[in-house]
Design brief:
By secondary structure, this protein is of the alpha+beta class. It contains 4 helices and 5 strands. The termini are far apart.
Length: 124
């Protein structure tokens, strides 16, 4: 089973390539949860190919393709993944359906748990 969502920076130096998956038509979507999050709440679905170190060839080689639900930070222009990397859009759709409330809370309210903990400690 998957873990709850966590916001993690997608380091471009760790990738061989990436592309954004666009959802165009609500009526024809096979992934309604992903369609809703992307069109209504400005999330993005990215297909990533990470670099992995091969012990046989002793160099970086392409890893398996993975899909993540991501947000782009407007100020820094960095991508942040909110889901673990999964091997299909169907699995990502299921993940988003399971953790929809957590994902929306993280996006709309924020993920300032660390800031709040620091504030509470300084109060006492």
């Amino acid at each position: 089973m998957f873990n709850s969502p966590q916001k993690q920076l997608i380091n471009p130096d760790d990738l061989l390539g990436s592309r954004e998956i666009r959802f165009q038509d609500r009526r024809e979507s096979h992934y309604p949860q992903l369609m809703r999050l992307c069109t209504d709440f400005n999330f993005s679905v990215l297909q990533l190919q990470r670099k992995i170190f091969s012990h046989l060839s002793r160099k970086l080689v392409p890893g398996p393709l993975e899909f993540v639900l991501a947000l782009r930070d407007e100020t820094s222009e960095y991508w942040y993944s909110l889901s673990p990397g999964v091997e299909s859009l169907g699995l990502l759709n299921d993940y988003c359906k399971t953790y929809e409330i957590d994902l929306l809370h993280m996006h709309l309210i924020g993920d300032d748990v660390d800031d709040q903990a620091l504030h509470n400690e300084s109060f006492y």
